[in-house]
Design a protein that fits this description.
single chain; alpha/beta; Spore Coat Polysaccharide Biosynthesis Protein SpsA, Chain A; UDP N-Acetylglucosamine Acyltransferase, domain 1; nine-stranded mixed sheet; five-stranded parallel sheet; 10 helices; globular
């Protein structure tokens, strides 16, 4: 069967207000050279899904710049390829809610015309901030073999009460049929299957669900569609065993980024056979390490100049670390400049941030110090 992909770029922007003030969740930088959406896009392309629509709502200029024509993902094609689905708002729209689509179902309503014009049989729906390396081909095979109406990707995880409250817990029987959903439950702990916010269904079925939701004023896909139809539809769960992270706060972003310093995590996410993670290519010179520089257990992208000390940190493209500067347990995004004798610990510097000579910034892993984009301190 032919397959098209739908990616939601904005619905989780409120989870990371610091990093999404000037960009969508989809275009949040991650892991030296990637953006969040690179993982979902690469998963689709590696699985043979070459017709992809990205639903946008607001603040998506950086996303458009990053995606470009889609050539870096081999999606620059007249047949299929990649398309940004912009908001469908009329000149006479007065309802402010139209400008603030915040749920998966509302986003799908705004993309109905695009979905109806596709000709593929199946659709893969995914959030943009699902950090994993999954083979959608296996998931689609599972969907077809089980003759499901909807298949949800799940991951078995050990949950704290705080973590459970940020996730949808899926309860399935021995055959993989979903029997219950706990939507952002409180006071749930222990090992449970959580939804990865990835699902497969027939495109015509999706259009029927959107039409029914519009007629009844539904807004939540999990509560108003899945939970209400759990007995009438055959909803199954596909278990994913690999690395997974979903970022829902600045501290979680910091933690997930620091996990990349573990070689086992990098291999599980970035070095999977036949499933590379693609991103926008930037032609930069190799990173230059001058005499007296010191780097330990860190990830550095190309185009940097390192004259100082970098330990346990993630340094994006084009960053300069001057003499006497010491960066530890921190993230410095693209084109940052760390002047002489500065010190960073547990900090996140957004793009184009500049620290003048002698500045000292320190946070904590649970509350990292954040410096906004284009700031000078």
């Amino acid at each position: 069967m032919s397959v098209t992909g739908i990616i939601f770029s904005n619905i989780h922007d409120n989870n990371l207000p610091e990093l999404t003030r000037m960009r969508t969740m989809a275009s949040v930088p991650f892991g030296c050279r990637y953006r969040f959406i690179d993982f979902t896009l690469s998963n689709m392309v590696n699985s043979g899904v070459t017709s992809i629509g990205i639903i946008t709502q607001t603040n998506y200029q950086s996303l458009a710049d990053h995606i470009g024509t889609g050539k870096d993902w081999d999606l620059a094609s007249r047949a299929g390829g990649i398309k940004l689905i912009s908001p469908n708002i009329t000149a006479f729209a007065q309802d402010s809610r139209i400008m603030n689509v915040t749920t998966r179902l509302e986003s799908l309503k705004s993309a109905t015309v695009y979905i109806s014009r596709r000709t593929e049989d199946l659709v893969v729906l995914s959030d943009c901030d699902v950090i994993c390396n999954v083979d959608f081909s296996d998931m689609i095979d599972f969907y077809e073999k089980t003759n499901s109406d909807i298949t949800l990707a799940v991951k078995r995880m050990k949950l704290t009460a705080d973590l459970a409250e940020k996730n949808v817990i899926i309860k399935s029987d021995e055959d993989g049929r979903v029997r219950d959903l706990l939507v952002y439950p409180r006071d749930v702990i222990g090992e449970h299957d959580i939804s990865l916010n990835i699902m497969v269904m027939k495109r015509e079925k999706l259009l029927d669900l959107i039409a029914d939701a519009s007629a009844h004023g539904y807004t939540s896909f999990n509560t108003d569609v899945l939970l209400k139809n759990i007995n009438s539809y055959k909803i199954t769960s596909y278990s994913y065993e690999g690395y997974f992270a979903c970022v829902s706060s600045l501290s979680e972003y910091f933690t997930c980024s620091m996990e990349l310093l573990d070689p086992a995590v990098r291999r599980a996410l970035l070095d999977v056979k036949d499933r590379p993670i693609y991103t926008k290519v930037r032609n930069s010179p190799p990173t230059r390490y001058t005499e007296g520089s010191y780097v330990k257990n860190s990830l550095l992208a190309d185009g940097c100049v390192i004259r100082g000390t970098v330990e346990n940190s993630i340094i994006f493209r084009g960053v300069t670390v001057d003499k006497g500067a010491v960066i530890k347990n921190s993230i410095v995004m693209q084109d940052g400049y760390i002047s002489k004798n500065c010190a960073l610990n547990c900090a996140i510097l957004d793009k184009n941030a500049v620290l003048k000579e002698g500045r000292v910034l320190s946070g904590h892993p649970t509350i990292p110090f954040y410096v906004p984009k284009n700031s000078i301190i």
